[in-house]
């Protein structure tokens, strides 16, 4: 018999004539680029106060049922803390995980059960599988990766991972012209499938994140988003919006397609913002 057609996001498809029911549509891939631009950030809320100025806090950006939180404190280290839930995080009850090599910066992410990070002192990125404890590395050519020539100076970051509705990306600064470059990663093979040069200079950037195929870059004081680039169309888009008042170190700014929140580490506070897209009106 015929299988049912796949459903719209969040709804099952109709049953096939004699075959199996269509698969449930996937909400994460449901993005119309023109309407998928960010209008504003709303409802900021502090989750907890951390001891370190620098750091990254992460939930798995792909696995819907995984409530664990991982924290990499400071901009360099070899262990991350694993919390079973937001409650454990607030109670500071954690396990320690050795990720096998030293990470550098505040640009890591957790995606599909693996911790992705920049291997300190090298032009390589690493993928550490929390379940198998296996480590895979990938060298990125023509990327600035040492001598303080940071992609994101404010957070001491050379390589910034980003996960959105399209999958996994890597943001870095080209060693050829120092412009912000984005690589699309294939997570199954841990390889680069394409490179996109935005031609935007790294020296103008405070932080950066990707949502719905669009790269957003803040100003050097991290107060507002002043540049946006559509990675799927390969051209800049005209979007600006406020982020925060000036002052203190913004160590981390990452989007999660799972809950459409921005995960922030700002002046030692870990904070969540709700991302308000134009089509949410």
Automatic annotation (TrEMBL):
<dbReference type="InterPro" id="IPR050605">
    <property type="entry name" value="Olfactomedin-like_domain"/>
</dbReference>
<dbReference type="GO" id="GO:0005615">
    <property type="term" value="C:extracellular space"/>
</dbReference>
<protein>
    <submittedName>
        <fullName>Gliomedin</fullName>
    </submittedName>
</protein>
<feature type="domain" description="Olfactomedin-like">
    <location>
        <begin position="35"/>
        <end position="279"/>
    </location>
</feature>
<keyword id="KW-0964">Secreted</keyword>
<dbReference type="Pfam" id="PF02191">
    <property type="entry name" value="OLF"/>
</dbReference>
<dbReference type="GO" id="GO:0009986">
    <property type="term" value="C:cell surface"/>
</dbReference>
<dbReference type="GO" id="GO:0007165">
    <property type="term" value="P:signal transduction"/>
</dbReference>
<feature type="region of interest" description="Disordered">
    <location>
        <begin position="1"/>
        <end position="21"/>
    </location>
</feature>
<dbReference type="InterPro" id="IPR003112">
    <property type="entry name" value="Olfac-like_dom"/>
</dbReference>
């Amino acid at each position: 018999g015929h299988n049912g057609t796949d459903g719209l996001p969040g709804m099952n498809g109709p049953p096939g004539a004699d075959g199996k029911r269509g698969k449930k549509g996937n909400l994460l891939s449901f993005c119309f680029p023109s309407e998928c631009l960010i209008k504003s950030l709303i409802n900021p809320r502090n989750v907890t106060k951390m001891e370190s100025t620098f750091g990254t806090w992460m939930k798995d950006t792909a696995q819907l049922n995984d409530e664990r939180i991982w924290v990499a404190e400071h901009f360099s280290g070899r262990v991350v803390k694993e919390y079973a839930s937001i409650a454990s995080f607030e109670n500071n009850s954690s396990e320690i995980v050795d990720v096998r090599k030293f990470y550098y910066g505040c640009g890591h992410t957790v995606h599909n059960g693996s911790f992705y990070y920049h291997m300190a002192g090298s032009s390589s990125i690493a993928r550490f599988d929390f379940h198998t404890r296996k480590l895979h590395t990938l060298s990125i050519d023509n990327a600035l990766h040492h001598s303080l020539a940071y992609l994101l100076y404010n957070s001491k970051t050379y390589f910034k991972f980003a996960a959105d509705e399209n999958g996994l990306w890597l943001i870095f600064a080209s060693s050829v012209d120092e412009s912000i470059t984005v690589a699309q990663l294939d997570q199954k093979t841990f390889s680069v499938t394409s490179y996109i040069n935005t031609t935007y200079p790294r020296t103008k950037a405070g932080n950066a994140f990707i949502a719905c195929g669009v790269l957003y870059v803040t100003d050097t004081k991290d107060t507002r988003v002043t540049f946006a680039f559509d990675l799927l169309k390969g051209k800049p888009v005209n979007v600006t919006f406020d982020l925060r008042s000036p002052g203190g170190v913004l160590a981390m700014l990452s989007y999660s397609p799972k809950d459409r929140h921005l995960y922030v580490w700002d002046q030692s506070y870990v904070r969540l913002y709700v991302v308000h897209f134009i089509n949410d009106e």
